[in-house]
Design the sequence.
């Protein structure tokens, strides 16, 4: 029991979503620091519980063997054998996260509205595509792949689970409101990282126009399946 509480505590204060929530509680809702910390710990415990439950139930698709053509492509980008393996495992996990986020957005009007407002599904799919094409730039997208994407997945899934409760308390509605604000912040952070990554390929003077054309064609982007050739 003590170990579970300890893990939940560590998870809460190493999770960017929970840290954003803490800031929202304190600065936006203007709760005192003790109340803000308690609410953050409650949110962290819920997320940790949900993460533990889904991790034990989840049956991941195995990573397919890399093709000789793709392996040659990786070597042309300067990747070693170990770096190729790391890259493929990382992108395999990212692909699963993206599909889980997309699935979640279709289960909640609130989550869907947030995703549409920030073009999130189109952006994360296009981001994924360009990372696959430029594996030598993996080090530039650590925050997106290892923090923002998994946290957004957890936040959307947790929001849907809590919102599905038949009876809700004042604290439940408060938690949902904070979760939605946290999802907004994560979507903005993802967009910021995407813009930074794409700035190397898009002329600065035309970035806004190019980005609009690149991202806003949501129907094509969102319905396009993610490649499993990585």
Sequence:
């Amino acid at each position: 029991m003590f170990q579970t509480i300890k893990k939940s505590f560590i998870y809460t204060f190493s999770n960017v979503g929970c840290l954003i929530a803490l800031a929202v509680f304190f600065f936006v809702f203007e709760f005192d620091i003790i109340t803000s910390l308690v609410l953050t710990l409650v949110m962290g415990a819920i997320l940790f519980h949900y993460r533990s439950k889904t991790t034990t139930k989840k049956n991941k698709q195995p990573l397919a063997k890399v093709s000789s053509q793709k392996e040659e492509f990786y070597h042309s980008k300067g990747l070693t054998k170990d770096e190729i393996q790391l890259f493929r495992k990382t992108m395999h996990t990212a692909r699963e996260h993206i599909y889980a986020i997309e699935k979640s957005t279709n289960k909640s009007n609130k989550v869907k509205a947030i995703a549409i407002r920030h073009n999130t599904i189109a952006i994360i799919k296009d981001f994924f595509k360009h990372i696959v094409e430029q594996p030598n730039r993996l080090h530039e997208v650590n925050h997106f792949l290892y923090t923002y994407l998994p946290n957004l997945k957890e936040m959307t899934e947790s929001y849907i689970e809590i919102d599905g409760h038949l009876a809700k308390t004042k604290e439940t509605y408060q938690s949902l409101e904070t979760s939605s604000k946290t999802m907004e912040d994560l979507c903005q952070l993802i967009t910021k990282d995407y813009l930074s990554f794409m700035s190397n390929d898009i002329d600065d003077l035309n970035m806004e126009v190019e980005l609009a054309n690149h991202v806003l064609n949501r129907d094509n982007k969102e319905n396009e399946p993610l490649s499993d050739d990585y």
Notes: The mean pLDDT is 82. The radius of gyration is 19 Å. The CA atoms of residues 202 and 210 lie 7 Å apart.
